[in-house]
Amino acid sequence: MVKIAFNTPTALQKEEARQDVEALVSHTVRAQILTSKSTIYHGEMSFYDSEDPTNILSGGEPYFMPVTEEADIREDDNIAIIDVPVPSFSDSDPAAIIHDFEKGMTAYLDLLLGNCYLIPLNTSVVMPPKNLVELFGKLANDRYLPQTFVIREDLVAVEEIRDVSNLGIFIYQLCNNRKAFRLCRRDLLLGFNKRAIDKCWKIRHFPNEFVVETKICQE
After folding, report:
1. Ranges for the BRICHOS domain (predicted)?
2. Alpha carbon separation from 94 to 8, 9, 26, 40 (Å, rounded)
């Protein structure tokens, strides 16, 4: 199995950012987006991590790694707003995510840097809102299958987006007055100079009955 190295903030940096991140999620993102009365869903999913180098070198067995998130899922608006908090036991990064099925877009807000990243919604991976509500219901009642797996996607910021006003009110409220960038899958970039990559981070979340590890890189 191929191992991928990630350039992410250190544990100390994440710990220092924890209070600011939580305040940003609670008072900025939700204050802007959650403008109507909503039900916030809490869920936790674990995947079998077989790529932990420390565990492998010590001859240990792979272990289950938890992924936690909150979601405001609005079936009437055909949208899912996801909060991925600062993780306690992994090197994933905190983020706010919007899956807008009306606009066909996904937006990632990096809560450490405050940048927005946009890519067409992958409906083959992201469940529609109705199914996400059912998934969170299963998670809340401990009725989820234990053999969860992880899908890894490798994305690159390819250009800055100057105007997000045409991307719908939810993404606009998330990304307005922030730097916003269009994302592309790395395997679709012909002749891409891998050495040009400067900053990379990853977000572990579950838009379906499995965990997705989204790696985002930027020059």
Report:
1. 89-183
2. 11, 11, 13, 18
Q: How far apart are CA 173 and CA 162, in angstroms?
A: 14
Instruction: Count the Cβ atoms, other than its own, within 10 Å of residue 44.
Output: 12
Burial of residue 34 (number of CB atoms within 10 Å: 0-12, 13-18, 19+): middle
**Contact 156/189 with Cβ under 8 angstroms?**
yes
Q: Give per-residue pLDDT as tens, 68-116.
A: 888 989 899 899 999 898 776 667 888 999 999 999 999 999 988 889 9
CA distance 58 to 56: 5
The answer to whether the beta carbons of residues 182 and 157 sit under 8 Å apart is yes
Which residues are within 8 A (CB) of 37 and not within 5 positions of it... i.e. 6 or more apart?
none
Give counts: helices (H), strands (E), the chain: 5, 10
**To which H or E segment does residue 202 belong?**
strand 199-205
Share of the chain above pLDDT 70, in %: 68
* Beta-ladder partners of 199: 218
Q: What span, in angstroms and rounded, lies between the C-alpha atoms of 20 and 113?
A: 11
Q: Where are the domains of the chain?
A: 11-218
